[in-house]
Amino acid sequence: MLTSLLVCSDAQAAQVLSLILHELGIRVETCGDLKLAAVRLEEQPFDGLLIDCHDEAAAVELINHTRRTVANQGTVIIAIANAGSQVRPVLACGVSFVLYKPVSRDRAAPSLKAARTLMRREKRRQPRVPVKAPASVAFAATENAPATLVDLTESGAALQSDEKLPVDGKVYFQFSLPGSSAPIRLSGEVMWQDAAGRVGIRFAQVPQVSQKALKTWLQSHLPAPEEAKTTKEDDAPGGLGLTSVSAADRRVQTRHACRLGAEVYAQGNSAPQRCNLSDIGPEGCYVETTEPLPSGTAVEIVVRTQYLKLRVEGKVKSTHRGYGMGVQFLLRTAEQRQQVNQLIACEAVDAETTVEPS
Q: Which residue among 108, 114, 227, 337 has its CA within the 20 to 30 Å range from the CA of 76?
């Protein structure tokens, strides 16, 4: 289950948002105090943070604090603002959505549904390190049940276990990582479990000593930057898009299939090409057209949907004659970045499928 922290002292808004989040299958923890919220964000990872920005300076401070925590660097942040208020400072901090007061169900539900899609996507962003190490698990009346660690991140792990672990309540386990003699002890929650005995664990409480040892080991075993780079642009139409990624890095790819009508304007030309976008990501998109523009051409892309209108500048990075072209976005403002993220999320809502266990 996805989790969220709702930091809001407005009782009416908190009630409406809590109800919608529950209906979307997102567990909600409410908190009316920003200092207490900062403590909770240090203690536990959350998929979403909803924060009332009536005190803008304090809200910005909490958002920046969230981005500095190990567990919540990728948390999807939703700002709750007064109607007509200036939201540039919070958008600049990496807020993905803004809800305006008075908060109503009709206005908030579409944005939260789109945010839920981003939350699910962010859960897969952290690179996982394959590892095979023995572990022991304790839960309820069971002590020292044997298990095998399969992969690991700073916020969770996958295990292979002969025991069926409880879906409600915490499990406690310990393990030693290859090349390290220091035991790591922590607690977590079962996020998924399959019939083959694979279990996905999300860390809940990690002692400081274990957290440091875990982070040090992961940093030394993550792929080097040059290994994680995308490969060169595809020359064949089978690899449509700006770039293709190596098999080892597919888990952090952030491009998403779509079918969006668009108007593409070449620089200095007021006549649009009416095309379709076949995939889109935070950094660019692929435009299907039988007459692609030359690489390096500056373009402007206009997309209109039920939810929003996006106008963004870009540059053609790859061309596949008769098929289309890959375009890199040139995002100059926080508002443009937010619009692109909203477009990706809204487009994914109808096509959303259950996230496959790792």
A: 227
Tokens matching residue 264: 């593409």
* Tens digits of residue pLDDT in 114-145: 888 878 766 555 566 778 888 888 887 788 88
Question: Helix 334-349 and helix 105-122: axis angle, to 10°?
Answer: 90
Q: Which amino acid is at 70?
A: V
How far apart CA 177 and CA 13 sit, in angstroms, is: 45
Task: Kindly write down the DSSP assignment for every residue of 289-354, as one continuous string.
Answer: -SSPPPTT-EEEEEEE-SS-EEEEEEEEEEEETTTEEEEEEE--SHHHHHHHHHHHHHHHHTT--P
Is the CATH code 2.40.30.160 the one for domain 129-222? no
Q: Do the domains at 129-222 and 237-349 have one common CATH topology?
A: yes
237-349 CATH, one of 3.30.470.20, 2.40.50.100, 3.20.20.70, 2.40.10.220: 2.40.10.220
d(CA 235, CA 219): 34
Q: Could you report the per-residue pLDDT of 139-173, keeping only the tens digit for each?
A: 877 888 899 888 888 778 888 888 888 866 678 88
CB neighbours of residue 169 within 10 Å: 10
- The Cα–Cα gap between 234 and 158 comes to 34
At 218-255, the pLDDT tens digits run 878 765 543 433 333 333 333 333 333 333 333 333 55
Tell me how far the alpha carbon of residue 275 is from its chain's centroid: 28
Domain residue limits, the chain: 2-122, 129-222, 237-349
Beta carbons within 10 angstroms of residue 153's beta carbon:
18
pLDDT of residue 357: 36
Within 16-169, strands assigned E span: 26-31, 48-52, 76-81, 97-100, 129-139, 142-152, 156-161
Q: State which residues of the chain have pLDDT below 70.
A: 70, 121-128, 167-169, 194-196, 205, 222-257, 306-307, 321-323, 346-358
